[in-house]
Amino acid sequence: MRRRRNDAAASRRALVEAAAVLFDERGYHGATVREIGERAGVDPALIARYFGGKEGLYLAALEEGQGPPAPLDPHDVLARFLANSEADGPSNPICLAMITPTLTATVRERIGGLVGRRIVSPVAEELARRGVDRPDLRAELLVALALGATLTRSGGTLPALADASLDEVRAVLAPLVAALVEEEAR
After folding, report:
1. For residue range 126-145, what is the model confidence (pLDDT) as tens digits?
2. By the 8 A CB rule, do 18 and 54 touch?
3. I need a surface site. Which of 58, 59, 62, 104 has the fewest CB within 10 A?
């Protein structure tokens, strides 16, 4: 299907849809701006125009796209963070944005809202359903644990962690995750 030349809304939507597919298939670094533009059937230069660059498009794809549903089980949340780190390494824009102290308030709210909607809230709701005390705090601590393990593993400064398999890291962290989300209030 061909788009009209000046249909900005259709071009923007096509870029978000193409980016969502490619980011899901290849990760942030594996998907190129050129490929996204080609798949969308538009000039890749429009990515800078509509989104400010690849990072902005990535955020838009996460915010506007459906993507796979977030896991509800805390062990699965950790597993997904670790698996995604294998694809994107430590420079995934969301991970970097969550740890950088230099974000503007607007970007911090955007990232916090995105992570809250897609990960923290669903997990907190599941923990509340299980009767866990302070489910919101525990869900955020789970994300912080997963993010910390992911970034430290990817950084390679701790060789045992960097060299361990994903299954081994998950197995070692499993009791910690279980303790974090146990059903009895402490």
Report:
1. 999 999 999 999 999 999 99
2. no
3. 104
For the chain, the structural domain boundaries read 8-64, 74-180
- pLDDT, tens digit, for every residue of 25-64? 777 778 899 999 999 999 999 999 998 888 888 888 877 8
Question: What tokens appear for 104 in the block?
Answer: 């503007």
Three-state DSSP string of 91-159 = HCHHHHHHHCCCCCHHHHHHHHHHHHHHHHHHHHHHHHHCCCCCHHHHHHHHHHHHHHHHHHHHHCCCH
Which of the listed CATH numbers 1.10.10.60, 1.10.10.10, 2.30.110.10, 3.30.390.10 matches domain 8-64?
A: 1.10.10.60
